[in-house]
């Protein structure tokens, strides 16, 4: 299983083999994998190498360590890295996505959004995104009525990106802020869970190719089911 003469690092070979075993059902979601000692003996490598491989799998969200209990296989998460609609992400992962429209109304533009949207009326769209039967994300979107053609609840069960692209907009990027949210009775009811689960609040402005803020979205995600990867870099000369 491990070729110590290969130019590929041993820990990486080990990591890939553990991932293959998980994919093949040797260790199932929620199951405790072999201990470091057992893995060291079965693979014939040092415990330090085992620890490095397991550490990277924990960082990747494939495994989770529970103190005093062992290392367990995580449930696969919805993973978002690039600018892509939630619908497209789930489609690429092969998941089954349903969208429940919890609210769809025309409102007066809130005072704190009047600088962003100098319009009298906004659509307020409240949707629950359900993946493989579990409530994963609650999205509340604000978009000027003037930006849209005809929208109804049936259309909103699909991709909002596709709806807006149909109106001639080309989405370029989004600006987001992320913070943790404490689970309470309201969120337990919203996500239909009876236990505390970690939540993320993501507030974002989605911007078109010509620099127009197209819509504002405030979403709550179950972070035990959703992973957002953010790449941060600096341009030369920006920081001194």
Automatic annotation (TrEMBL):
SMART domains (alphabetical): HTH_GNTR (SM00345), UTRA (SM00866)
Keywords, alphabetical: DNA-binding, Transcription, Transcription regulation
Keyword match Lipid metabolism: no
InterPro entries in the cross-refs: Bact_HTH_transcr_reg, Chorismate_lyase_/UTRA_dom_sf, Tscrpt_reg_HTH_GntR, UTRA, WH-like_DNA-bd_sf, WH_DNA-bd_sf
Domain HTH gntR-type: 8-76
Pfam family name, one: UTRA
Record-level GO BP terms: negative regulation of DNA-templated transcription
GO MF: DNA binding; DNA-binding transcription factor activity
CDD domains listed in its UniProt record: WHTH_GntR
Keyword Nucleus: no
PANTHER family: MANNOSYL-D-GLYCERATE TRANSPORT/METABOLISM SYSTEM REPRESSOR MNGR-RELATED, MANNOSYL-D-GLYCERATE TRANSPORT_METABOLISM SYSTEM REPRESSOR MNGR-RELATED
Protein name: GntR family transcriptional regulator
Organism whose genome encodes this protein: Clostridium manihotivorum
Lineage, highest ranks first: Bacteria, Bacillati, Bacillota, Clostridia, Eubacteriales
